[in-house]
Write a structure and sequence with these properties.
2 domains; 8 helices; 8 strands; alpha/beta; 232 residues; four-stranded parallel beta sheet
């Protein structure tokens, strides 16, 4: 993803000579999500190949076929994501993308999607923030894997309340019907689409997008996310 540069770790300040400004000890502090539901990414207590789906997805499967999350949304990873989203630390997106690419290097090319879809922001929120953090994370991933980014696929037609302080039920209701396909023909030839987001909490946003995409013929919809949060 680039030349090795000497810089300071964004977390501890130690000198690093890497493609990203994150030292190895700090990276090792990130809380890896080892056991998770294959469909929604919810952390599972025990690893069991016979029980790779959580109880919630077993009872009420979502439209999402699989979810890949790297970490628990906890310290110190949450700091990087918060600084990216709310303090315009765009360099953090490259760090997060590099971490995801390291994980994707284990994936077979057959499992990669036809197109990457960053979760769209409403135009008003995009203007206020100045960028879409999901798109900033997706750019280096798409470039490295040579996968197109579907900027012309879906838009958010209605501005919703921020999901941060909402319950799971409120999140699902808040996001319902807020997306629309820009052009139906833009989906032509895409059988497998991956939604990229910074954090998955309840999966409501991804599920809403997956429902819309599958109604128009997409066969497989996955989610790639840096972290999985849990409403307690």
């Amino acid at each position: 993803m680039g030349l090795f540069l000497k810089s300071a770790c964004v977390l501890c300040g130690d000198s690093v000579v890497k493609t990203i400004s994150l030292c190895e000890p700090c990276r090792q502090d990130f809380p890896i999500l080892e056991n998770a539901c294959q469909q929604c990414g919810l952390p599972l207590e025990l690893a069991n190949e016979d029980h790779s789906i959580c109880g919630q997805c077993f009872k009420s499967p979502t439209a999402v076929d699989y979810t890949l999350c790297l970490y628990h949304y906890e310290i110190p990873l949450d700091y990087l994501i918060t600084e990216l989203k709310y303090n315009q630390k765009l360099a953090h997106a490259a760090i997060l993308a590099e971490l995801f690419l390291a994980r994707l290097s284990e994936e077979s090319a057959e499992n990669l999607p036809d197109v990457i879809l960053p979760v769209p922001l409403h135009k008003n929120r995009l203007i206020k923030r100045g960028f879409n953090q999901s798109l900033e994370i997706a750019r280096p991933i798409a470039k490295q894997l040579d996968i197109p980014i579907g900027l012309d696929l879906v838009r958010r037609k209605r501005q919703t309340r921020t999901q941060t302080d909402l319950t799971a039920v409120e999140r699902k209701k808040n996001i319902r019907g807020c997306f629309e396909i820009i052009k139906k023909e833009s989906l032509s030839g895409y059988d497998h689409i991956v939604i990229v987001d910074d954090v998955v909490t309840t999966g409501s946003t991804a599920n809403e997008l997956a429902i819309l995409l599958k109604k128009l013929g997409v066969k497989k919809v996955g989610v790639w996310s840096i972290a999985r949060a849990v409403i307690k």
